[in-house]
Design a protein that fits this description.
alpha/beta; Udp-n-acetylmuramoylalanyl-d-glutamate--2,6- Diaminopimelate Ligase, Chain: A, domain 1; six-stranded mixed beta sheet; 11 helices
Length: about 375
């Protein structure tokens, strides 16, 4: 028997993998139509949400559509049905179907993200972010009385602080002497009103993802015994190696040009794509860069990192020259590069809710055809 799930619980599972704070400024990921408190009986998963996809949801008894691309990018001032966006939203509302999108925030994560899915299809190994995201980390320093150090430290770790790459519970601490004088209206943990006091304290320093700042601070305040907690936050310019744009990895073995082209076609299930010309003498491929969707902004980065090929989409004419005859730019198409993204949603929801029904949309939403 299929399990029904609250929409907010489904959203929490997806956003644990790809926090909405990681989406780009232009994006509109998140719940687009519906209420988080609604009960979802079955979900239809698709790359895009269109009128045809909503109709398929109706036909299959799904009251949620999970899409990679948001149907609404910019604000809607009227709902008159004059374009496909408005008609899709109207149809969803009329039929009580929720629409949720997870877009560039899913692009920007390494593990189980859009680009890792492409890398898995291509069999790439030793994968890492092509362009790590900066300004995503804070350093939190807090002074804690020795009696409560373990309590506060554990609370911070549980809230998401202290994660560095594949290591968790990372922190640095040292002891010192704190001084304070409680004044009128205070309720001190130790010391007496009007008297200068001393307390042996431990300073704990941990890294905090910017999108978890409020969550971590709330955990700190709740676990800390002081009425006024002495702490500081510092913006770090360190890049997070598990967040950012694109991905780079290595094929299990070198391939010549023909072998690589066939491997790409078979792995991504495509018949044709655009490539650049290469200089004479470049014959083998091992280090591969990928970016689902429009990835031309990463061409120079892929070349500077020594990639032999870069797989992406939406490359403009003049941008193909940026390969300089050394980087094989492979434009396989926007839809073609992201069509396996639906598998990510199904995998994480099936793992968390094994009895919840999820279906892949059968409608091919690709608006581009080759003649």
């Amino acid at each position: 028997m299929n399990e029904s799930i609250k929409l907010k619980d489904i959203i929490n599972v997806i956003e644990h993998l790809a926090p909405p704070q990681l989406q780009e400024n232009y994006d509109n990921s998140g719940l687009i139509v519906g209420s988080e408190d609604s009960l979802i009986h079955k979900a239809l998963i698709s790359l895009d949400c269109t009128e045809e996809v909503i109709q398929e949801a109706i036909n299959t008894g799904c009251n949620l559509v999970i899409a990679h691309h948001p149907i609404v990018f910019s604000g809607i001032k009227k709902l008159t049905g004059k374009n496909y966006v408005e008609r899709t939203v109207i149809k969803a509302i009329k039929n009580d179907i929720a629409i949720y999108a997870c877009h560039t925030n899913l692009d920007n994560v390494l593990h189980q993200g859009v680009n890792k899915k492409i890398a898995d299809k291509l069999g790439l190994q030793q994968c890492s972010i092509l362009l790590p995201k900066e300004n995503t980390l804070l350093k939190l320093g807090v002074f804690i009385p020795k009696s409560h150090f373990s309590q506060v430290q554990e609370a911070l770790f549980l809230a998401g602080a202290g994660q560095i790459g594949n290591y968790r519970d990372c922190g640095f601490s040292f002891e010192g002497l704190g001084t304070f004088t409680p004044t009128q209206g205070s309720n001190p943990y130790s010391g007496e009103l009007g008297k200068k006091s001393e307390e042996t304290e431990t300073r704990l320093e941990v890294v905090v993802p910017t999108y978890l700042k409020n969550q971590v601070l709330n955990a700190m305040f709740q676990a800390h015994p002081y009425e006024e907690v002495a702490y500081d936050l510092t913006q770090l310019i360190n890049a997070r190696n598990d967040l950012g744009s694109g991905l780079v990895g290595y094929l299990p073995e070198e391939m010549d040009f023909d072998h690589w082209i066939q491997h790409l076609k078979i792995s991504m299930e495509i018949d044709q794509f655009k490539v650049t010309r290469l200089k004479d003498g470049i014959k083998t491929f091992k280090k591969i860069g990928v970016c689902g969707g429009a990835g031309s902004f990463l061409i120079k980065q892929a070349r500077s990192m020594g990639c032999d090929a870069f797989v992406s989409a939406d490359i403009k004419y003049h941008e193909f020259f940026d390969g300089e005859g050394e980087l094989l730019i492979c434009d396989i198409g926007h839809y073609e590069s992201e069509k396996y993204t639906s598998e990510i949603f199904k995998e994480i929801l099936s793992e968390k809710f094994p009895k919840f029904a999820t279906l892949f949309a059968q409608i091919i939403t690709n608006p581009v055809y080759y003649i």
